[in-house]
Amino acid sequence: MTSIPNVPKFDGRALINGQRVAAKDGQVFDCVSPVDGRVLTQVASCGVADVDAAVASGRAAFEDKRWSGMSPAQRKRVMIRFADLLLQHGDELAMTETLDMGKPVKYARSVDVNSASNCIRWYGEAVDKVYDEIAPTPSTALALITREPVGVVGVIVPWNYPMIMAAWKIAPALAAGNSVVLKPSEKSPLTALRMADLALEAGIPAGVFNVVTGTGPHAGSPLALHMDVDCIAFTGSTRVGKQIHVMAGQSNLKRAWTELGGKSPNIVFADCPDIDRAVAAAVGSIFFNQGESCNAPSRLFVEESIKEQFLEKALKLVPGYRPANPTLPGTVMGAVVDKIQLNTVLRYIESAKAEGAQLIAGGEQALKETGGYYVEPTIFDGVTSEMTIAREEIFGPVLSVMSFTDTAEVVRQANDSVYGLQAGVWTRDLNKAHGVARALRAGTVHVNQYDEDDITVPFGGFKQSGVGRDKSLHAFDKYTETKTTWIRIDSPV
Predict the structure, then answer these.
(1) Rounded CA gap, 330 and 175, in Å?
(2) Considering all CA atoms of the chain, what is the largest pairwise distance in Å, rounded to the nearest integer?
(3) Annotation marks residue 92 as catalytic
(4) SS3 per residue for 73-124
(5) 259 given a catalytic annotation
(6) What's the pLDDT tens digit per position in 142-153?
(7) Which pLDDT tens digit goes with each residue over 416-454?
(8) What pTM, to 2 d.p., does this model score?
(9) Considering 31, 46, 119, 259, which one is annotated as catalytic?
(10) Per the residue annotation, which of 294, 303, 376, 393 is the catalytic one?
């Protein structure tokens, strides 16, 4: 492994009430890079006392209206400065993200930094353009329907897209006037801390945006259970998401919004308008970000008559995704986030072999000599819907291929999942595209593409893929209360 250039200086302390602080009990944990196993820094291991302090800071800021009392236009200006600062520090943030969770720096810069900045800018721009309502009442009354911030919002985000997932939640929450306490994953906490520094620099008042670092049990659970948190927004596994909803009910019945797992089907019909594009999308979307994407199209259904041709083309693309040092500008697939995730992916690969799937590409750990955590891009053919790799979310670069001959049957198989996040359909038949898209139980259905996206459209899923929507104006619904003010008019003209 070559040496890593331009390593930023890291500050692993939490950010509470505008100040970088150690955990109150002095506990820390090592932040280990999946690139080569090095310890990047030590990070504050926050607990109940730290969460209490962060929530109290957010509550004080909300009650004295240092942020919520600003006009939407004022908050907009600060949010836009925040977005600009992310771009100005883009190289630093991208390298931090790469070292912290293993993704290629080229994508950390072009995708993660830019998307996070765009998200914060978009909600800043949107907040003074969202109007309230007047109800169509009799002339003896005036009924106003207004939005108000919910108060203190707890945010818990995963390790796969640390900046983007944080931005999707903090941007609408902050723009609406809330205070935020963000708990990043302990596997990739560094960019969240740096984003909070830049938020302060942009003019978001102290106490409005706090970051507590630590594990789920020690920092995440106290946030979800806190009696003075009005809303909890979570992205992560379905298992933990269920616990978040329980904790919300056990405490103060806070609003709980969860964006959870996926096992997305990608259906390619024989009349696909561009088989090369379909192959490139199927391969690129599962191997992008090392397969660590909740919406990854991990179940590929190819119509039997074109499957041999499809897989022949797919196998030619696989060598282009060979894992390499993610800090180098030409790398397209880096390391999985840590040793635990490495072992999880390898266990799924072994289970697929044991259950009779046919390994046609990859299947091994790569670059062992580096000390990092790398997995070869892996494809299994001959998968059936009963196999573990077709049912459980792997969160790694593993593609399961299945064939079909009947449209109704492939829709049934595609829907035969506890998840319903995203799906793909490839056909030149407009009627088939519409019919299958409507029949698929998923929050987003891609037609003749996969992964095209924009901040203007909602993101979220059906079934056990969670509740609520990130992105678009719909996200404001999660972080605002709807109030009716009914005014009696006794003497109408």
Answers:
(1) 37
(2) 85
(3) no
(4) HHHHHHHHHHHHHHHHCHHHHHHHHHHHHCCCHHHHHHHHHHHHHHHHHHHH
(5) yes
(6) 999 999 999 999
(7) 999 999 999 999 999 999 999 999 999 999 999 999 999
(8) 0.96
(9) 259
(10) 294
